[in-house]
Amino acid sequence: MTTTIPYTPAVEDRTASLPLRLMLAPAGTAPALLDGAWWPRSRDLTVELPALTAVLDPLWGRITRVTVNPTFWPVIPRKVPVDGHVVGVGWFKAEQDPHKLLLFSYTVGRWDLLVIPPETSPATAARLMIEAADPLGIRTASALMNEAEQRRIAEETELSLVSVWDSEGGHGAGLPTSRSPARAVIAQVSDATEGI
Fold first, then answer.
1. 139: how many CB neighbours lie within 10 A of its CB?
2. What is the DSSP letter of 177?
3. Of 55, 68, 179, 183, which residue is 20 to 30 A from 9 by alpha carbon distance?
4. Where are the beta strands (DSSP E) in 29-182?
5. 100 forms bridges with which residues in the sheet?
6. pLDDT at 41
């Protein structure tokens, strides 16, 4: 069973009134490539990480370190204060998938989360969260994001084709352009046997 954890951080910040967008694989399931997905509201780690780690600390043990790939994070702080302790933040460009966040805890180990870009549409984000939290999942974070992008392009192409179809007359294309109703022709047909 997949868990979605709504959470409002105690620390006042610009996202304080908004719930955390996080979905985790069911507890006790066999390890998959990803342990879930996180959909932050911005690309600011100093704002986003405190809420995430505050939720995960009770579930996974105190989060002590987080690593990211700097491709999608404009600023990577070395440390982020979180509910009475500090979480170290590191980065790996070549070694870490750009769409993945690694979280480390002294007590339990490591977790890998898909990071869904903040600008992602809600429908796409929901689909990605479900796929990333699947305990039987075999796709990497980048593979999931690439599939989502291909799906988005296909949907936009289809919408574009439908728009062109509609603008060119849709299913009525090729028919007379007159919009007046067709007139019924009524004629009296003489009986061929009449007058015989």
1. 17
2. S
3. 68
4. 36-38, 63-68, 79-82, 85-91, 100-105, 109-115
5. 114
6. 97
